[in-house]
Amino acid sequence: MKTKFLKELKMYLNQYDIKQEIVKDIVNDHKEIIEDAVASGQSEEEIIEKLGNPRMIAKELRNEKKNRKQTYDETFIALSPFIAVIAYMLMGFLGEMWHPGWLVFLIIPLTGLIVSVRRDGWQILLTSIAPFIAVGAFIIMGEYYDLWHPGWLVFLIVPFVGYTHHSDYVKRYVSMTGLLVSVGLYLFIILTYSNTEQYAWLVFLIPAIIGIIFGDITFVWHSDFEETPKSFLMIIIVALITFIVLGLMTSLWHPLWLILLTIPVGGILLFNENTKKNLIGISPFIALTAFILIGEFVGAWHIAWLVFLIIPMVGIISSANEK
Amino acid sequence: MNTQFKRGVLELCVMKVISKQKLSAFEIIDLISHEIDVNENTVYPILRRLTNDKYFSTEKKRGEIGAPRKYYSLTKKGEDYLFELEETWFNFINGVRNIMEGKHEN
After folding, report:
1. Binary contact (B26, A47; C-beta < 8 A)
2. A29 → closest Cβ in B27, B40, B70
3. By the CB < 8 Å criterion, does A61 face chain B?
4. Where are the domains of chain A?
5. pLDDT of A110-162, one tens digit each?
6. ipTM over 0.90
């Protein structure tokens, strides 16, 4: 009863775009109230009735979002699409760098992410921006040094950084070492022996087995809230395997790497219960995919950037609906 | 009873019980629920709003049992506001009583 009430309260609060630390505080306050009531001899049902409906509580608390630090942070986020467009136009017209100059558009989701998680500590920040660092490094390595393969290995920094969150010291370092050893072995095999790509990937079974032993990888196919982190790990693994297998079969590492965008998109959809926030969050990835496909297959890099306008448009429409 | 009206009265009651002593959220809800039906009106949002408006201050204090709890107390600003609310309330109920008892002036 208590768990259901707190879970519902959290869900409704998240619908109102209230800052996570405030949501946590409110849920914690309610947990304390219920525990105190039970300690004083009341039943959970009794105190929950007195507390009221979670939906009503959330509705009345929604004005708290006004307490968010809006000024500089939101101005900065709002300005980022314009800065990106100006930088992209300058690089395109002055330096003919339509591609990979489009990478500057990554500053839009990146700005939003940095602003929203910077107070949660460097580890969370690093985990959040790791997919973007990986995409940037991968495109630059591929475009300038033709290292699409094995440049994709850079995406493994995402689970690597993720492992730094492991509370268990032994599990953390064993998982990180397992991943590093498998990358080292993979590179050693493909660089030393020719035509070994189709077998060399088997070394990645090492971190996979470690993950299964430590319970980081479980084969759960429903997206229950408690199982979210594990589901996210599954998305990472499935995306990587699909990318590697299709890449090895077709050698089309670019633009096949777009498959890897399912990782940040999956993360946004799984970790955020707010539909409007989800739309805003995934819009840069939809725009990026459309941009690459138009640029690559139609050759229209110079006008393809227009698809990035969907990002501020989605943001504006979502904000307007909220009012 | 009209929800808006009840909410206003509830706000006054919450302030009044806290003016007597430092109380935890549960103690406030429990005290008030003995006198008023609170299940349609959520007390907690009132507590939170009045704390944000600096009428209440909070401190973590260890109770008789369990982990430290958040305790609410009235600030100077809260005391002034309560004084205003009480004055308005007593004027209001005196006026209503006069009307109900037929003591109002023609």
Report:
1. yes
2. B70
3. yes
4. 2-66, 69-322
5. 777 777 666 556 666 777 778 778 878 887 888 788 887 788 888 888 778 87
6. no
